[in-house]
């Protein structure tokens, strides 16, 4: 075998050890030298694209049945109850995708802000960030295309409109940017905090689903509660909803950057143990504290 065929869990340990040895746990400077399995970049990126595809297809399908004309939406009724139902369904979908076999292999990010934060935490290689992000955006587009093909004009026309998001009337660009950045930062900080503990790490799939579902229920009617650039990218392209697109793309990244800085500053002797949101290694084994400075 070539020198590049190192198991993912060994590679993760190598990343942590290099960061700790330099006294800058979470700094990205040491990551480009991490040895990774041959072909892992493209295999893992392809799985991220698949997961992002399933996320956008799932979100569009949930809105088609919970918001569009259907038996389910007629039983739920109008108002806040419908938003709560959507939040529960989307949160459960995210948790299950993270826990799936593809999610355990790639990490189940499905969000460039998560990928960027994991790099800033020092446990994700820099050379994999761009392939992951490209795959995530590609999955966003593909998910919307397939949802339109499966559900027909119901997915295209209001109130579904390809699952595109828009803030409520009266929201300014600055207000929307702040809301998206702060809400994303809270989710990523909480996820990073839980991933510091072997005991808490396995709860991250449910934590992520709970926090995102709650944000949809509480803020969906006001801001859209995207917190993920790929969540809005595909829907915006097909619905031609471009007015706030740059905010939905950039604000989560700013929130991720701020969350990474805060957690890196606060964690002191603790370290984020894995970039996998399932809270385990690829083979399902538990993460553990290693070489903490």
Descriptive keywords:
293 residues; mainly alpha
- Tally of contiguous helical segments: 13
Give the tally of β-strands: 0
What's the story with the biggest beta sheet? none
User: Mean of the pLDDT scores?
Assistant: 87
Multimer state: single chain
Low-pLDDT segments, ≥5 res: 1-35
Proportion in helices: 55-70%
Radius of gyration equals 19 Å
| Structural classification | mainly alpha
Termini gap:
32 Å
Shape: globular
Strand content: under 5%
Following the backbone from N to C, one meets helices and strands in this order, namely: HHHHHHHHHHHHH
Question: What can you see in these coordinates?
Answer:
It contains 13 helices and no strands. With 293 residues, it is mainly alpha-helical. Helix 12 packs antiparallel against helix 13. The chain is globular and about 50 Å long. The two termini are 32 Å apart. Residues 1-35 have low confidence and may be disordered.
Task: Record the SSE blueprint.
Elements: H1 8-21, H2 40-66, H3 71-76, H4 80-99, H5 101-106, H6 112-121, H7 129-151, H8 153-156, H9 173-194, H10 198-201, H11 204-219, H12 229-239, H13 245-267
Helix pairs in contact: 2-4, 2-7, 4-11, 6-7, 6-13, 7-12, 9-11, 9-13, 12-13
Brief digest:
With 293 residues, the chain is mainly alpha-helical. The protein has helices at residues 8-21, 40-66, 71-76, 80-99, 101-106, 112-121, 129-151, 153-156, 173-194, 198-201, 204-219, 229-239, 245-267. The radius of gyration is 19 Å and the shape is globular.
């Amino acid at each position: 075998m070539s020198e590049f065929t190192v198991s993912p869990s060994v590679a993760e340990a190598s990343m942590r050890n290099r960061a700790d040895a330099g006294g800058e746990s979470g700094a990205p400077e040491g990551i480009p030298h991490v040895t990774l399995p041959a072909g892992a970049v493209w295999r893992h990126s392809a799985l991220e694209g698949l997961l992002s595809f399933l996320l956008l297809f799932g979100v569009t399908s949930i809105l088609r049945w919970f918001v569009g004309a259907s038996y389910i939406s007629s039983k739920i009724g109008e108002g806040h109850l419908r938003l709560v139902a959507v939040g529960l369904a989307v949160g459960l979908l995210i948790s299950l995708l993270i826990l799936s076999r593809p999610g355990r292999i790639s990490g189940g990010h499905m969000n460039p802000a998560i990928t960027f934060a994991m790099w800033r935490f020092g446990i994700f290689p820099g050379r994999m960030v761009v392939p992951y992000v490209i795959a995530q955006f590609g999955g966003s587009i593909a998910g919307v295309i397939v949802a339109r093909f499966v559900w027909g004009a119901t997915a295209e026309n209001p109130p579904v409109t390809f699952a595109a998001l828009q803030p409520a009337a009266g929201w300014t660009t600055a207000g929307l940017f702040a809301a998206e950045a702060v809400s994303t930062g809270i989710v990523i900080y909480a996820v990073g905090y839980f991933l510091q503990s072997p005991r808490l790490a396995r709860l991250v799939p449910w934590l992520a689903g709970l926090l995102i579902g709650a944000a949809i229920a509480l803020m969906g009617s006001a801001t859209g509660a995207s917190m993920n650039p790929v969540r809005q990218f595909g829907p915006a392209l097909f619905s031609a909803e471009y007015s706030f697109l740059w905010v939905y793309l950039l604000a989560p990244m700013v929130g991720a950057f701020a969350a990474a800085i805060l957690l890196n500053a606060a964690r002191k002797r603790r370290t984020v143990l894995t970039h996998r949101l399932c809270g385990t290694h690829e083979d399902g084994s538990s993460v553990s504290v290693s070489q903490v400075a």
